[in-house]
Amino acid sequence: MPNVVGLILGGGAGTRLQPLTTDRAKPAVPIAGKYRLVDIPISNCINSGIRSIYVLTQFNSVSLHRHIQSTYLFDQFSPGAVRMLAAEQTPDSEGWFQGTADAVRQSSKYFMHNDPDVVVILSGDQLYRMDFEEVIKEHMERDAEVTICTKPVPRSEAGSLGIMHVDKKNRIVEFAEKPGDTPRLDALRAPMYRDERYLASMGIYIFNAKVLSELLCGSDETDFGKHIIPQAIEERKVFSHIFEGYWKDIGTLGMFHEANLALTDLVPEFTFYDTKAPIYTHMRYLPPSKINCCDLNRCLLSDGCIVSGHRILHSVIGTRAVIGEGTVIEHSVVMGADYYEHEKALAKKAPGVPALGIGKDCYIKNAILDKNVHIGDSVYISPAGKAEGEQTDLYIVRDGVIVIPKNTVIPPGTRL
Q: What CA–CA distance (Å, rounded) separates 127 from 43?
């Protein structure tokens, strides 16, 4: 392996994931009950032998800082670290990051002092498992200056994605951003497949460090997908690495809900059970979950839960979740809690405020419940009959899913 630096882009404000991103950065959004989205690219780097990792962020970065500082602690005898690089005012720049390329440009003085040969640029909101060592090896064997990881997709998906057209040697010769279902799309068809498939950019880039510096310093463009990559295709040797495995962009609430529930399949397309390439996260030292006479079917149950419900079907239950007797949860993501509510805290509660967790005899379907919610007894939660975008202080409906924001208190008997 050459000297490699991994950069993870924290993304923007994450408006399409709100209210999950109202108080946290997009990479800090919980997934699969006990992980955070940022654990995916960091674990992929560590499993690929990349130990010098930087996370670039600017929106709601406190929770992301806390998670990384408490999780990724390399010992003093091992080189490398996971470092946070937040947007800052300097004599050279007085504003926020203006885009992905601008974020890397402003942060380059911190990671370039390692004198890297190769820079791997990743997104902080994708679910996949990839061996970057293989990608970098292919990158060097081709004498490439830039390698873009691509995913074969059908025509029905290609029109809304960034599509790469390659020659017989997999060198990228053309890039089209969201070409739509038009005659132009016909010319972008991937030549190595018999069926109609197209190579969509995954937003994963492998740059020779010198080339990255020249592309960024030679312009003031702000975005990789819109500006830097098209320029590189015209001026540099840019190749495609075709990835055939599972890859999911967690860009919307619908995608988030779908990706989580897919993990409950008996043999999911993406698995957290791969011991050769594990996904790392914060060690919480929680007790085993306790289940009292509850029917669990296709359920992902995290650590430290106390479950006394009637039935939980096709759902993800996060750490420290408390679920009362008689409650039914279907096709939902329950993120759990950051803490246990002890008797002293219960005694201080105002009259009528339910305990932390989900009460008795509730019915919850097609929902996302963010952390630390207080849901009283006999509460009904479902998006059925509600309009897309409908919103109150207690919920928002988007992509066919009803979302209960973090720390929300829902009184007993409420029907949403």
A: 11
CB neighbours of 220 closer than 8 A, spacing ≥ 6?
A: none
Lowest mean pLDDT among 98-107, 295-304, 332-341: 98-107
Q: Dig out the tokens for 405 from the structure.
A: 């924001």
Average pLDDT over residues 24-41: 93
Q: How many CB atoms lie within 10 A of CB 291?
A: 17
Question: Which band of pLDDT confidence, cut at 50, 70 and 90, is reported for residue 186?
Answer: confident
Helix, strand, coil share (%) of the chain residues, nearest 5: 25, 30, 50
- Structure tokens belonging to residue 411: 């009184």
Pairing of strands 118-123, 197-208: antiparallel
In contact, 90 and 41? CB cutoff 8 Å: no
- Spatial neighbors of 285 by CB under 8 A, at least 6 apart, are none
Q: Is residue 243 helix, strand or coil? A: coil
Distance CA 46, CA 175 (A): 31
Buried b (16+ CB within 10 A) or exposed e, 117-129: ebbbbbbbbbbbb
Q: DSSP states of 283-350 as a string?
A: ---PPPPEE-S-EEEEEEE-TT-EE--SEEEEEEE-TT-EE-TT-EEES-EE---SS---HHHHHTSP
Neighbours of 234 (CB within 10 A): 11
User: Cβ(300)–Cβ(312) under 8 Å?
Assistant: no
Question: Helix 209-217 crosses helix 100-111 at what angle (to 10 degrees)?
Answer: 120
Distance of CA 239 to the CA centre of its chain: 25
Instruction: Tell me the whole-structure pTM to 2 decimals.
Output: 0.91
Look at the alpha carbons of 374, 375, 376, 377 in this order and tell me if their dihedral is positive or negative. Answer: negative
Domains annotated on the chain, with CATH = 4-262 (3.90.550.10), 290-410 (2.160.10.10)
DSSP assignment of 64-105 equals HHHHHHHH----TTS--EEEEEE----SS--S---SHHHHHH
Q: Phi/psi at 247 (nearest 5 deg)?
A: -150, 130
Q: How far apart are the first and last CA of the chain?
A: 55
pLDDT of residue 315: 97
Q: Provide the residue type at 245 as one letter.
A: G
